[in-house]
Design brief:
Helix content: 25-40%
Strand order of the largest sheet: 1-2-7-4
Number of strands: 10
Main location: cytoplasm
Order of helices and strands: HEHHEEHEHEEEHEEHEHHHH
Shape: globular
CATH class of the largest domain: Alpha Beta
CATH architecture of the largest domain: 3-Layer(aba) Sandwich
Distance between the termini: 63 Å
Number of helices: 11
GO molecular function, one term: 4 iron, 4 sulfur cluster binding
Catalytic activity: epoxyqueuosine(34) in tRNA + AH2 = queuosine(34) in tRNA + A + H2O
Radius of gyration: 20 Å
Family: Belongs to the QueG family.
Subunit structure: Monomer.
CATH topology of the largest domain: NADH Oxidase
């Protein structure tokens, strides 16, 4: 089997598994990303996420994660919902958290992909990654032609915008690589202009210390009082920079049942959100990414919105 045949076989299977895109890059050092990541960290843009400073070399070189790695296969999975929250005054959660935690969903699909590769191509060694290890997901996806990194720092495509997750397989299997695409943000600054907290401090640079997603999820301390009245009712995550992006007018609803919201979640009123109990939280957000902030964290966020 030629490298091209191997690659085409994998891409066909990726489509069967429901992935929106599949791109391949040779496993090697990310030279262009190294100085950008170093400066971003040096400027303190990672906030309290000290783990971002760990394993710096591994973030840039996949062969340090998977000895003998030859290819990085990137996958994208659409999560754009068919419906959004019905009460315009209700506290908002990011669309990616409507359904089951994407870590579980993508990992299951990647395991199936590995089994397929082993059964059709031969025994390979490697690892699957879904936003849970020192892997620069967006950089690899862009390098393999699945999109370009927009000014909001998220992966963008002309065909379907940016509402998708990214996962990777790093394997010791040689494949035919794809090339990167071009940047199509142009002179647009919609995401920068719309950010409620001015977190996009320059094109392609996000200061986590100001980002609502960071403040409502990653930050374990109290939300700084300086953000009172600036959160636009976001209680978990934020979609503003994506919602205003012109390319997201091409987003289409996903077809993954596991991403569908729990019954009643989208219909919750502001009052129901503010009075949410532990039991309701555990039921609605069972297996959801919202569980990451825990009940206490969500209550902290909800109370802060009342300031």
């Amino acid at each position: 089997m030629t490298l091209r045949e191997r690659s085409e076989l994998i891409k066909r299977k990726a489509s069967e598994l429901g992935f929106a895109g599949c791109g391949i890059s040779p496993a090697g050092f990310l030279e262009e990303e190294a100085p950008r990541l170093e400066k971003w960290l040096r400027d303190g843009n990672h906030g309290t996420m000290g783990w971002m400073e760990n394993h710096f070399d591994k973030r840039l070189d996949p062969t340090l994660l998977v000895p003998g790695a030859k290819s990085v296969i990137s996958f994208t999975l659409n999560y754009f919902p068919e419906s959004v929250q019905s009460d315009a005054n209700a506290p908002k959660i990011a669309k990616y958290a409507y359904g089951e935690d994407y870590h579980f969903v993508i990992k299951d699909k990647l395991r199936e992909m590995v089994d397929f590769i082993k059964s059709t191509i031969g025994d390979v060694e490697g690892r699957a990654f879904v936003d849970s290890a020192p892997v620069l997901d967006r950089a690899w996806a862009a390098k393999s032609g699945l999109g370009w990194i927009g000014k909001h720092s998220l992966l963008l495509t002309k065909k379907s915008g940016s509402f998708f997750f990214i996962g990777e397989l790093i394997l010791d299997l040689e494949l035919e690589p794809d090339g990167p695409t071009t940047d199509h943000c142009g002179s647009c600054t919609a995401c920068m202009d719309a950010c409620p907290t001015d977190a996009i401090t320059a094109p392609y640079v996000v200061d986590s210390n100001k980002c609502i997603s960071y403040l409502t999820i990653e930050l374990r301390d109290a939300i700084p009082e300086s953000f009172a009245g600036e959160m636009n009712d976001w209680a978990f995550g934020c979609d503003v920079c994506q919602d205003v992006c012109p390319w997201n007018r091409f987003s289409k609803p996903h077809s993954e049942p596991r991403f569908n919201p729990r019954d009643g979640m989208l219909e919750m009123s502001r009052e129901e959100w503010m009075d949410i109990s532990v039991d309701v939280f555990n039921e609605i957000f069972r297996k959801s990414a919202v569980k990451r902030t825990k009940y206490e964290g969500l209550m902290r966020n909800l109370k802060f919105l009342q300031k």
